[in-house]
Each structure stands twice: as C-alpha cells, then as structure tokens.
C-alpha cells in the first residue's frame, strides 16, 4: 500500500506539471475553437445521457476505492489547493464479477481535438465500469460527426419570431444547456442514492478525510454566494438607471409637446398678421387710386386755369387798345375845355401820388415775396435733412436685412453639417444591419427619413435614437450578466456534485435562481413588447417633425411675401414723395400764375384809371387793391403760422418715433438676454447630468469586468486542479484499470467541454455587448442644444422685426387715411362765401353806397347806367377766377396747417 501511495504521488506531481503546460496553450486554443467546442458539447451531452443509462449498474458494482485528501488552507490568487488521490484495489466478489461480465457498462473516451496542429489538450472524466465495443463505436461515431448532430439537435429558427435576435438565441442556448445539466445532475443523484456507496470508492472508516473536503467546498460556496449577491445588487442598480433614463425620456417628450404647442400659437398669430397685412394692402391700393384720381382732377383744373389766364390776357390787351383810343378822344376834348383840363391835372397829380404809393406797396410785396422765398429755401434744407435721416434709416433697414441673410446662411450651413453627420452615422448603421437581419427594414426606414429631414429638430431625434440604442445595449449587458450568473450556478452545482447531503440545498438555490430567471424572462418579454410601441412613437415624432418642416417652409414663403410687400410699400412711399414734390411744384407754378394774374390785374386797373380819370372808377379800383392787399397780408401771416406749426409737429413726431423705437429695442434686448440665460442654465444642467451618467456607467462596467475576471480565474484554477488530480489518478492505476480508462474519458470530456464552454461564455458574451456599446458614436448633446437655441433666437428676432414693420405700415396707412378724410371733408364742408372776412363785407357796402359798376355787382339793382350785359359777364368771369384761386390757396394752407396724424373733431366721423 505504501509503495502504491508513493507512486501515486509521483505520478500526480508529474501530471500536474504537464497540465500546467497544456493549460497555458488551452486559453489560446479556446479563442480559436469556440464554434467547434459548442458543437462538440451538444454531441457529448447527448452521448453522455446514453452512457449514463448504460452505466447505472456499473456504478453499483465498482470494486475500487479512492481516498481524497484536501489541504485546508485558503487559496490565494495564484495558489491552488492540493489534491491527493490514492487508489486502493480490492478484490471483487464472484457475484459482482459475474454481474459485471453479464451486463458490462458502456462508457467511452471522447477527446476534443483542437484546430492547431502543435497544441492539443485532452480532457477526460472518470466513470465506473469497463468499456465495451458498443460504447466505443457510439462515441467514435458522435465524435466524427459533431456538426451533423448539433444541427439536428438545434434547428435554425431565424424566421420564427420578430424577436429572434442574436441575444435571444444565446439566451435560448444557455437555457437549453442549463436544462441538460439539470437532467444530468438528477441522474447522477439518483445513481448515488441508489448506490449508497462512498464517492470514488472511499471506505466508511476513512470519512474523516471528507470533512476537510466539505469545509473547503463550503468556503468556496460562501465566497461564490457573496459574489452572486454583489452581482444581483449591481443588476438592481442597472435597472434603476434604466428607469431614470425612461423618466428623462418622458420629460423630453413633455418638452417636445410644449414646444409644438408654442409653435402652433405662433403660427396662429402669423396667420392673423398676414390677414391684417392683406387688409392694409387693399386700403393702400384704394388710397393710391384716390390719389391718382385727385391728381388727374388737379391737372384738369390747371389746364382750365391756363386757358382762362390766356383768355383774360387777350381781353386786357383789347381793353388797352380801347383805352388808347379813348385817350385820343379825351385829348381832343381837353383842348376844348381848359377848365376841365385844370381839374383833370389836379386829379392827375392826386392819381400820380396814389400810383407812387401803390408802387411802394408793390415793392414791399416784392420784399415779402423774397422773404417767403428764403423761408422756402430754409424749408427745403430741412426737408433735405429729413431725407438724409430717411436714407440713414433705410441703410439701417438694409443692414438688418443683411443680418437676416447671414442668419439664413448660418442655418443652411448647420443643415449641411447635419447632413454630413448623418452620412457619417450611416456607416455604423450598415455594420448593425449585418448583425441584425430583422432590424434592417426599420433602419432603412430611418435612413430614408434622415435623408428627407434637413432641419434642426433632426438632431434631437438622433439623440433620442442614440438613447434608445444605449438602453438596448444596457439591456444586453444585464442579459449577459444574468447568463453569467446562470453559468456560475451551474459550475457550483458541478463542483458540489460529489456531496450527497448538500444536493438538496443546491437544488433549492437552483430552483430559486430559475424562478428569478423566469421573472427576468417575463421582464424581457415585456420590454420586447414595449419595443414596437417605442418604434411607433418614434415614427409619430418623425411625422410631427416633417409637418413642422413643411410649416416652417410655408412661414418662410410668407416671410418672403411680407418682404416683397414691404419693398412695394417703400416704392409706393417713394412714389408718394415724388407726387408730393410734383404737387409742390404745381403749387409754386400756380403761385407764379397768380402773381402774373395779379400783375395783369394791376395793369388793368392802371388802364382803367387812365381811361376813367373823370369818373369814380379810380376810387373803386383803389378799394379793390386795398382789399386784395389785406387778404394777401392775412394769407402770408397764416402761411407763416402754418409753417411754424408744421415744423413743430414734425419734430414732435420724430421724437416720439425715436423714443418708441428705443423702448421696443430695449425690451427686445432684455427678453433675449433672459432667454439666453435660461437656456444656458438648462444646457449646463443637461451637460452635468450626461457626464454623471457616463461616469457611473464606466465605473459599473469596470467593476463588473473585474468581478467577472476574478470569478473566471478562480473557476479555471479549481477546474484545472481537479482535472490534474483526476488525470494523475487515472495514470497511476493504468495497470489495474486498463479497461476502465477507456470508459472514463467520456464523463471527463463532458465535464471539460462544458466547463470550457462555460469559461468562454462570459468572455464571448461580454465581448459583443461591449462592441455594441462602443459601436455607437456619442453625439455631443450640448452642441445640438446650442444649435436649437440659436435657431430659436433667430426665429424670435425675425418675428419681432416683422411685428415692428407691420406696426410701421399701420401708422403710415392711418396717416394716409386721415389726410384723405381731411381733404374730402374740407372740400365738402366749405360753403360759398365762407372764406370772406368782415373787412371785405365792409368794403362791399362802401362800394355799393358810392355807386358805379362794382356797386351794381354787390347790390340787387343796377347802380350805373353804363353797365351792359357783356361787361357784367366779363366781370363775373374775372370774379369767379379770383374766387377759385383763393379757394385753392385756402385749401392748401389749411392742409399744411393741420399737423400730421391730427383730425379735427368735426371730421372724425
């Protein structure tokens, strides 16, 4: 016995060294042969189930006892607990030999060869019972065709359901593995309970060694339970993070709804303003038509005046000729009577004195005319200064238009940049298409929508898509962690399979884990059910964005129409100014004509004085000239007063307009500053939130990766030690267990294959999850928010400018209306004789008392016998012409006297 124990120790140490060398290459080979190992595992599971059915009697008839001793030391990071296997051969009874000969158990060695020719590792398990040809052929057939058996065991269900993704397939495969491992554990448990024999042939008197083994296993089990609890806590944290992200998503949806409502309100106000602008344009057209009609009537009146003046000049020339003839006759009469000549001389001297006085008065009137011309020049200078101010204001308007154009260019630049970013994102989405076949259609729809979308809100939609992808990635990570938990639980069950007493506790824990798995599956189903709803909501948001884009295009067209209307309005104003200038020129021409008429009248008066020296006509002419001079004085005084009032009113209007513009611009600046501050605070808060969430995710990922690495290292170390000990025991007893070595490989291959796959599964699952997370390029949300804020500010500025221009247009239209109403009401209101003063009435009474032609005009009966029908008609025509001239002067003076924007209470109706 002692010699056999020494040999077993030496062989165990030799095989431990060999296994350490082989396991260093096994890690590299595992990465190369993931697919082949999974297929071999499925085949080995099916084969082992058949072998266990055949090996059940051989387990009962085992004739070999092994003593297992473990060191009670706690393993460090790199140290492994030592395992000693001693085989004590015993002689079987003849009954057992016969039973074994009659019903031999079939178990075969199944070795998984790696792809590399140089490095190869073989994992073998121990099973009780000799090998048979049937089992050998069965195992060889399964080993030769692993791919066909894997295909038959797991048929492809790629198009079975809409949720058949890579992650769901991995979950289903792991669930099937866990179920197959459960069945194996149940079978082993039933065999152990039926056998009631010690593990590995251990005798009942050596149960003290098992106590140490149980303590080691319990210690490892406690450590793994702690790690499982930590992972469960981290899973809860992940779920809380997912809930927080969902709440943030809901908040963002509420903000979207609010913004859409505000935009609808803005659209309603814009439509109202457009209706008002149309009404104002109609009124402008009506006022233009009225002005054209008035201009035509004024031109017709001017032509009539010109004709009448020409006719009067011809009559005056005729009268001059007649007066000369009468003068010659008077000279002949003068010779006849000297007395009458003396009287006439005296009268002549008096008339000459009066003429000198009249010439002096004419000179005075000329001086007054010069003064009026100077005042006119001064008014023209003021008008030119105002025109300069108008030019400056137009330049400011042009500058504002240039700023608007620059803003539009910036918006187009941002749209182009967004297009480039969308093109950059297409490459990542093409990669995702290769991995997910079912999501290809949805992504194609999103690409089409992205090609159509060219506005600012598209960035917000992309951020939401990135968030949804991040949520999917987090869900995948949680699924991977759950799968890792399952694998760890199955590993623990395999490690503690030896102990029959702790099988019940492990089953309970396994059932609890399965219940948790069911809950997690239900949660997964719920999330997958909610996924189409999220996609529908995304489509709805995209439709809303498209509608908003169309509405924005309409608004831009309306803006262009408003700008065109503004340009038309400016052209109309320029036309109105030109018409006013023409009217001023015509009034000047009329004044010149009036002066000419007055000169002609004075000439007529002089001629009449020369012809009617011996009559009372000279006195009448002097009274008429005095009346006209008084009227001229009054008119000049009224004109100066009206000019002063006009200047004052213009100054007041300019001051008021400047103050109103300053107040409006200050209010605009204040509102924009407040909005800017609020948006900056919101952006800062969002940035801090995003950074905190990223930091938390990074730290949690690192913690999980570290924990998984530690657990995988510990599991691999424990498995390697067990495999080394088992291989050492098999080689030492090769002489006494020749037939059993061939059958022991099947179980060990099954254990090794499952453990290798389970060791690889965390890395293979964690790998794609990390790739999915990293494949999405993180978009800077702060840049997107800043762009949205800039565009909103530009919109607000444009709307405020539109409102200001509309108010200005309203004011101008109201002024035009008021002026037209004043002119119309003045023309309709004034009656004949209303403009005559008291002085003119006194003068008329005086003339009627003195007698003569003029007295007969102002009285109802003829006061002079020389008044004929023709002479009375001519006098009436002249008086009519004078009356029309005075009416026109009074109308122009009264219109100038009324300040701009003022309507008398008489005309307000």
UniProtKB/TrEMBL annotation:
Residue ranges annotated as compositionally biased, kind Basic and acidic residues, are 724-734
Q: Which UniProt keywords apply?
A: Coiled coil
Q: Name one GO molecular function term.
A: small GTPase binding
Spell out the Polar residues composition-biased ranges.
Answer: 1-25, 33-45, 75-88, 119-138, 150-162
Q: Where do Low complexity bias regions lie?
A: 89-118, 139-149, 735-746
Disordered, as annotated region:
1-165, 724-770
Source domain of life: Eukaryota
UniProt-listed GO biological process terms: vesicle cytoskeletal trafficking
Look up the record and report any one GO term of the cellular component aspect.
trans-Golgi network
Question: Can you tell me which residues the record assigns to a coiled coil?
Answer: 781-822
Q: What is this protein called?
A: Uncharacterized protein
Which species does the entry assign this protein to?
Astatotilapia calliptera (Eastern happy)
Q: Which gene encodes it?
A: CCDC186
């Amino acid at each position: 016995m002692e010699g056999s124990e020494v040999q077993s120790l030496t062989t165990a140490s030799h095989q431990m060294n060999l296994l350490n060398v082989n396991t260093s290459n096994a890690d590299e080979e595992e990465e190369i042969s993931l697919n082949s190992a999974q297929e071999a595992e499925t085949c080995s599971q099916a084969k082992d189930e058949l072998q266990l059915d055949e090996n059940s009697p051989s387990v009962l008839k085992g004739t070999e006892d092994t003593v297992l001793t473990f060191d009670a030391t706690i393993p460090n990071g790199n140290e492994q607990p030592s395992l000693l296997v001693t085989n004590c051969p015993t002689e079987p009874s003849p009954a057992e030999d016969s039973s074994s000969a009659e019903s031999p158990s079939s178990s075969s060695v199944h070795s998984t060869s790696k792809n590399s020719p140089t490095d190869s590792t073989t994992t073998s398990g121990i099973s009780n019972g000799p090998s048979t040809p049937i089992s050998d052929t069965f195992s060889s057939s399964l080993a030769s065709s692993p791919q066909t058996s894997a295909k038959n065991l797991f048929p492809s269900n790629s198009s079975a359901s809409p949720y058949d993704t890579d992650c769901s397939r991995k979950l289903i495969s792991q669930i099937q593995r866990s179920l197959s491992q459960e069945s194996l554990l149940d079978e082993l448990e039933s065999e152990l309970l039926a056998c009631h024999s010690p593990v590995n042939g251990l005798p009942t008197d050596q149960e003290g060694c098992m106590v140490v083994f149980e303590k080691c296993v319990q210690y490892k089990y406690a450590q793994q339970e702690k790690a499982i609890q930590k992972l469960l806590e981290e899973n809860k944290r992940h779920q809380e993070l997912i809930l927080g992200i969902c709440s943030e998503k809901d908040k963002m949806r509420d903000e979207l709804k609010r913004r859409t409502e505000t935009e609808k309100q803005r659209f309603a106000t814009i439509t109202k303003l457009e209706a008002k602008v149309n009404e104002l344009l109609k009124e402008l057209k009506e006022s233009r038509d009225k002005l054209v009609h008035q201009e035509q009537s004024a031109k017709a009146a001017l032509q009539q005046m010109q004709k009448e003046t020409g006719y009067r000049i011809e009559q005056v020339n005729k009268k001059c000729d007649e007066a000369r003839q009468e003068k010659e006759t008077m000279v002949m009469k003068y010779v006849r009577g000297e007395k009458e000549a003396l009287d006439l001389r005296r009268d002549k001297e008096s008339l000459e004195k009066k003429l000198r006085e009249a010439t002096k008065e004419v000179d005075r009137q000329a001086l007054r005319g010069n003064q009026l011309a100077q005042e006119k020049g001064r008014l023209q200078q003021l008008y030119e200064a105002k025109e300069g101010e108008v030019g400056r204001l137009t330049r400011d308007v042009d500058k504002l238009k240039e700023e608007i154009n620059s803003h539009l260019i910036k918006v187009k630049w941002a749209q182009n940049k967004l297009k480039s970013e969308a093109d950059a994102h297409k490459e990542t989405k093409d990669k995702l298409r290769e991995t997910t076949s079912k999501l290809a259609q949805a992504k194609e729809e999103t690409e089409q929508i992205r090609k159509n979308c060219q506005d600012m809100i598209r960035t917000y939609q992309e951020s939401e898509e990135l968030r949804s992808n991040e949520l999917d990635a987090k869900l995948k990570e949680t699924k991977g962690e759950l799968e890792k938990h399952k694998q760890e639980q199955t590993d623990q069950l395999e490690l503690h399979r030896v102990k029959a007493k702790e099988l019940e506790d492990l089953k309970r824990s396994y059932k609890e884990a399965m219940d948790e798995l069911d809950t997690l599956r239900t949660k997964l189903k719920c999330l997958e059910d909610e996924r189409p709803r999220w996609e529908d909501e995304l489509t709805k948001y995209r439709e809303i964005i498209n509608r908003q884009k169309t509405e924005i295009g309409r608004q831009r067209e309306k803006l262009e129409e408003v700008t065109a209307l503004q340009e038309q309005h400016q052209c109309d104003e320029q036309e109105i100014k030109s018409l006013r200038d023409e009217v001023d020129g015509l009034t000047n021409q009329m004044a010149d004509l009036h002066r000419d008429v007055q000169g002609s009248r004075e000439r007529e008066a002089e001629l009449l004085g020369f012809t009617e020296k011996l009559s009372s006509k000279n006195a009448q002419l002097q009274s008429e000239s005095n009346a006209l001079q008084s009227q001229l004085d009054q008119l000049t005084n009224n004109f100066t007063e009206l000019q002063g009032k006009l200047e004052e009113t213009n100054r007041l209007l300019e001051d008021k307009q400047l103050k109103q513009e300053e107040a409006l611009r200050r209010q605009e600046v204040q509102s924009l500053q407040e909005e800017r501050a609020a948006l900056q605070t919101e952006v800062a808060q969002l940035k801090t939130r995003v950074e905190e969430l990223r930091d938390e995710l990074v730290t949690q990922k690192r913690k999980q990766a570290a924990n998984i690495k530690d657990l995988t290292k510990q599991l691999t170390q424990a498995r390697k030690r067990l495999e080394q000990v088992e291989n050492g025991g098999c080689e030492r007893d090769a002489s006494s267990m020749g037939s059993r070595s061939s059958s022991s490989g099947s179980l060990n291959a099954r254990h090794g294959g499952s453990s290798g796959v389970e060791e690889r599964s965390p890395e293979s699952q964690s790998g794609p999850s990390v790739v999915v997370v990293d494949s999405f390029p993180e978009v800077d949300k702060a840049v997107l928010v800043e762009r949205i804020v800039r565009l909103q500010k530009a919109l607000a500025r444009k709307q405020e400018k539109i409102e200001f221009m509309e108010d200005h247009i309203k004011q101008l239209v109201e002024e035009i209306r008021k002026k037209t109403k004043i002119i119309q009401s003045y023309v309709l209101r004034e009656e004949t004789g209303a403009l005559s003063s008291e002085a003119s009435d006194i003068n008329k009474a005086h003339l009627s008392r003195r007698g003569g032609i003029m007295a007969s005009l102002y009285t109802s009966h003829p006061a002079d016998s020389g008044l004929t029908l023709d002479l009375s008609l001519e006098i009436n025509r002249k008086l009519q012409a004078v009356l029309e001239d005075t009416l026109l002067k009074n109308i122009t003076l009264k219109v100038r006297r009324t300040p701009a924007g003022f309507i008398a209470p008489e005309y307000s109706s």
